[in-house]
Amino acid sequence: MTTSPVSPVPQATPEELLPSTRRALLHRIAVAQSEGRAPSLVAAVARDGALVWTGSRTSVDGHGPDENVQYRIGSITKTFTAVLVLRLRDEGLLDLADPLEKHLPGTGAGEVTVAELLAHTGGLAAETPGEWWERSSAELRPTLAEILGEQPFRHPVGRRHHYSNPGYTLLGSLVEKLRGAPWAEVLRREVLEPLGLTRTSADPQAPHAGGWAVHPYADVLLPEPSQDLGLMAPAGQLWSTTRDLAVFAAFLVAGDERVLGADSLREMRAPAAPTLPGDWGASYGLGVQVARRDGRTLVGHSGSLPGFVAGLWFCEEEGLAAVALANCTSGVPAASVAADLLAIVADAEPRIPEPWRPLPDVDSSVLELAGPWYWGTQVVALRLADGDGVTLGPVAGGGRSSRFRTNGDGTWTGLDGYYAGEVLRAVRRPDGSVSHLDLGSFMFTREPYDTDAPVPGGVDPEGWRGLPR
């Protein structure tokens, strides 16, 4: 393994992190490499899209990998495949509710929808029948029939989350069918090149790490085979670097109209599967894992193939992303290491918020809606947001809260929370004054059970009263 020149992409300098933070990051990966007995481990942390720290540990003196050395990233590949599928949806070539049979007939799994495949809720088997697919020739599985087998389902469709590698093979084949080109070519043309991911590829490009197995009870190594995965490539084929994955993480937060817009990426990040058992409160979106850890929401993916483990997480609220890659079959919990690196920076050097600034302009008809509203006796507040949006949520404490984007016609559509997809509108009286807010049939009034509003069921004409003593 050799090092390569520093990436030409603009980066923040390591000095932007405090020396104590940098040492804590180095200590974490040193422990991971030592205890995990990895031949090498490389890691990076990015803040607001720029690398602020990179580090590595290696068992070979003088050959430490840098942020441009490729490692195999396993199932992080699935996130790239999901981006391609969302692009097809945004172009109107498919709907996420479409059954697979509509676009890719004859698979034997055609009743599964595109969304269910993305979220691993289609009930398909976790692995292919026959030999261990990650370590055997793709020639054993030349068609989808060999990948799915005679009984592709393990659970009722849509009933539970069951991780499925063959499911992402189906998605890759769907991309190929609708684009009329190989999955790797479509990915390069539509995602890798526009985002500048020059060191991400379906096949290894020097400099790259070799994959190793470490004996569980002896400090000796065994080289792992590096198989081309064939039709299974959309589930785990890619090689990449910490630098490229940090750039990809920034894209997954902010979007890039040349590839996929922010709204579609927000949809990808929303949990689409039940919460999974475990300590992290994990769920799955559309091609990404979603977890709660240390009070933060982390989005990303883990990955493994014989000889390699990988972890990528980003936290939108903190503006941070972290990547950890190692060339060992097991031993290093790469996803946990990446989460720890992110937490080290977030805890030691919290994000400095942007200065408060007033809105550049405001519509008076919207401004008059700001303030407290009542759903029955529950008080909520409508607040104006930048970009003609609004938020509706509790004045204090917990409760339902959602952000809304303007529809340009005096109504707003919910973006998240309980009211995601619901339409908010102000109902006005003949004289133009606001009677109430209507939100998914819920009525919000300026006073609790306002007698001047058409409250469903009416309001007792005697009004509010006390109880006689």
Describe this structure in words.
The N and C termini lie far apart (86 Å). The model is unreliable at 1-14 (pLDDT under 50). This protein is 25% helix and 21% strand. A hairpin with a 4-residue loop joins β15 (402-406) and β16. It is of the alpha+beta class. α2 (77-90) packs across α6 (165-179). It is globular and about 85 Å long. The strands form four sheets. The protein has an eight-stranded antiparallel sheet, with no helix packed on it. Strands 2-1-11-10-9-8-7 form a seven-stranded antiparallel sheet, sandwiched between helices. The chain has a two-stranded antiparallel ribbon with strand order 3-6. It has helices at 19-36, 77-90, 100-103, 114-119, 144-148, 165-179, 183-195, 233-236, 242-254, 262-269, 334-348, 364-367; strands spanning 40-47, 50-58, 71-72, 212-214, 221-223, 239-240, 283-284, 289-293, 296-305, 308-315, 320-326, 371-375, 378-384, 390-394, 402-406, 411-414, 423-428, 434-439, 442-444.
